[in-house]
Amino acid sequence: MSEVNRAQIEEAVRLILEAVGEDPNREGLLDTPKRVAKMYEEVFSGLKEDPKKHFETIFSEDHEELVLVKDIPFYSMCEHHLVPFFGHAHVAYIPRNGRVTGLSKLARAVEAVAKRPQLQERITSTIADSIMEKLEPHGVMIVVEAEHMCMTMRGVKKPGAKTVTTAVRGTLAEDVNARSEVLSLIKN
Ligand SMILES: Nc1nc2c(ncn2[C@@H]2O[C@H](COP(=O)(O)OP(=O)(O)OP(=O)(O)O)[C@@H](O)[C@H]2O)c(=O)[nH]1
Ligand SMILES: [Zn+2]
């Protein structure tokens, strides 16, 4: 099952190659439109996924303390320039009423949200809101650190500049000490 219109992408890539002054019919470029279509299907595969669906897996476990999955690597595509931005997401939540999800599901949700044309802020808040809605925890804190190729290889050209975004909900939004604990666990 094809998730994107590959033929349309191939046509568009041929047009771009022509527009930049390339010859889409030269040997090295002949299969490029097909490769790019396949790549877009992969890097935008999150568009067909609802991140919340990953939180259907709920274990009844009496743990109302912090759970943190940190250093989850992700790759996304900046929606302004369609070039990659990539880094790590750290996902913390405090379960309530025994509603604990599978650890891998937190990383799966990051993947689903990242694999779309995106903004880093939206990745951060979408993960937080999905967890709040489905797990109804005491609190959630998401920290995302990323490097944007649109700031590295073009434009302002500042390689190494990192963007850090956070989204905090529930008790973690109110409790400065709990937030500091999450941050120190992420750092160590
Ligand atoms: N807030 C936010 N901005 C982003 C993100 N990814 C890229 N951008 C910014 O989007 C902005 C787009 O600015 P524009 O002025 O419309 O486009 P531009 O002329 O290509 O801008 P420059 O990158 O400054 O050359 C730039 O400042 C990018 O750094 C993101 O995830 N979040
Ligand atoms: Zn960009």
Automatic annotation (TrEMBL):
Pathway: Cofactor biosynthesis; 7,8-dihydroneopterin triphosphate biosynthesis; 7,8-dihydroneopterin triphosphate from GTP: step 1/1. Transmembrane segments: none annotated. It catalyses: GTP + H2O = 7,8-dihydroneopterin 3'-triphosphate + formate + H(+). Keywords: GTP-binding, Hydrolase, Metal-binding, Nucleotide-binding, One-carbon metabolism, Zinc. One of its GO terms (molecular function) is GTP binding. Belongs to the GTP cyclohydrolase I family. Homopolymer. HAMAP family: FolE (MF_00223). This is GTP cyclohydrolase 1.
